[in-house]
């Protein structure tokens, strides 16, 4: 059984697909090939269930100095590699297929194509109808194994950080070993998911006054005015300037692997919905997650102890420090009670 999973979406989307990948690999005792993007492929490194990784490069994601021609040539190579791999099954691992995903399934020449969709194309041999039930996306994706007779209850998200990566980031950060380490992840792509810098500052001071602890500050690197890859360097600097009186380390991660490794050092993490949320859950860290214009029941933390806050008017800016602090305390108590 040769299986190709098509998941050309965001970082969090790919992480949320890892339970499906694991269940198929274990059921058929094979490694699963995947089609992913250049910017999310690194989350699959060291995953024992992954076979070949086919890379799709988007022109607007090419690196500095990389020509458009080189991106197009790499894309052609991916076409050829997928076509000649001779897959038995192509799975569009998405809550609803698009023409682009279907295009790649056709290129694969797979005998069977599995996807969600009530009005599925004739090219999809195994269409799974959508339901109105409120189910987490991980539970939904697990249904894609049903046409193969391989359904199982989904396990945790799977991210694999090597000992070398852990050692390297631990030496770089040098966080205290004898007190709790709390992560504050301050970035979110959508404006309605962004909590204000001054609220992170107030929360950090409240927690540090309540107990002896250390904070790691995470953010998307780059300046806010970078049109291609806007970041939160300025927001992080404002927070650090206002937190000189508490124990806190800024963690300027250069890539996803460093972020994964650094988050494993935390006892608990606060973040808005987004890729970083699923990275935290993927490395097994309890999470307090803030939701604005996204649904917690569908995108919430999977497989780890967590608390979720759904903001008034679907705007994280409207969440109070009191509300977030209360959930932070509740989660910490629950985790300690379970140890």
UniProtKB/TrEMBL annotation:
UniProt cross-references to CDD domains, sorted A to Z: GT9_LPS_heptosyltransferase
GO cellular component terms, A-Z: cytosol
InterPro entries for this protein: Glyco_trans_9, LPS_LOS_Heptosyltrfase
One GO BP: lipopolysaccharide core region biosynthetic process
Protein name: Glycosyl transferase
PANTHER family the record matches: LIPOPOLYSACCHARIDE 1,2-N-ACETYLGLUCOSAMINETRANSFERASE-RELATED, TETRAACYLDISACCHARIDE 4'-KINASE-RELATED
MF term (GO), any: ADP-heptose-lipopolysaccharide heptosyltransferase activity
Family annotation (Pfam families): Glyco_transf_9
Keywords: Glycosyltransferase, Transferase
Superkingdom to which the source organism belongs: Bacteria
